[in-house]
Structure formats: structure tokens, C-alpha cells
Amino acid sequence: MAKTLVIVSHPDIERSVVNKRWVQELEQYPEEFTVHELYREYPDGKIDVAAEQRLVEKHENIVLQFPVYWFNCTPLLKQWFDDVLAFGWAYGPGGDAFRGRNLGIAVSFGSPEGSYAHDGAVGYTVAETLRPFELTANYIQANYQPVFRFHGPDSNVAPSAEQLAALAQNAADYVEHLRKYGR
């Protein structure tokens, strides 16, 4: 199995419930997963493009892990896309760095799963909401993998014991998900 690069983009990972728990789970398997936290690596927001490109090139499987903010990724991950996915490297003539690589996303939502339905509070499905990431994967010729996700708890409310138990199971499921699509 090829080692998987998990690019974590959470601006306050220490206060995170879901993303922090996922990172803790992944770090138990350093032989399988490279956990790369953008906000820790670049607290000033200045991304080392060459270093990021080399890191991607060392892995066959890439996962972008982030909390969904306003139906999108975090600002630093958006900057990562803008800076790292450069013309001639990720797309355009000679831009084949992602060709044949698996690219997936793991996202946390601070709202119930039912919110992401046509008759829910959001009015769109998870797949519809995250379509720009699928389009990006297709554009850079990566193999887009099924989305991994967790709904709740709301980041403004302390999680219940039941939610923490569900998250513990979800974290174990996350590792299995990555193993399945990392082959």
C-alpha cells in the first residue's frame, strides 16, 4: 500500500473536536500516513510552493482534510490550491503532477447530515456542495475518491458523550476509508 499524504487545514486545530480527533487517529499509523498541517507549517500564511510540490510528488494518494466553512474550504487551503496547483505543474502543458494520483477529501460539518438534502436547511446535498473539489480533481487529472465526512458537533457547543463516541468510531472508520482508497 502506498503512503497517503493527508493535508490538514484547520485554523485552530487545538480547539477542534473532529479534525483534531482525526489527526490523533492518523498519527497512530506513521508508516501509512503523512500528516501535514498547513496552519502549523505556515502560521504566517506564506506557503513554500516548491516544498509543497515535492511533498505531493512523494505520495500517490493525497487527502485534503478540513472543516467546511461557509460551504468551502479554509482560507489557507484555498491559498494552497491557488499557489501550489501551478500551471505547468498541476495543469496545462507539462502539468501532470496529479495524473494518476488519488485525491480525496475528508470534511467535517457543524450541522446535522439532514441539513445537506434538497429539503434540508442547506438545500443541497454534500456532493453538490463539494462539487468544486471534484471539478478541481478532474481538471488536474487526479482520481477523485469518495468523500469522507462527519456531521456535528457544532463547534460552538460542547459535544455530548454520544457525539464523542460516534466520533471515536468515525475516526477508526476514517483510517479504514483511507486504507481502502489508498491501495
UniProtKB/TrEMBL annotation:
Domain (Flavodoxin-like fold) ranges: 3-172
Record InterPro entries: Flavodoxin_fold, Flavoprotein-like_sf, KefG/KefF
Keywords of this entry: Oxidoreductase
GO molecular function, one term: NAD(P)H dehydrogenase (quinone) activity
Name under which the protein is recorded: NAD(P)H-dependent oxidoreductase
Organism the protein comes from: Corynebacterium canis
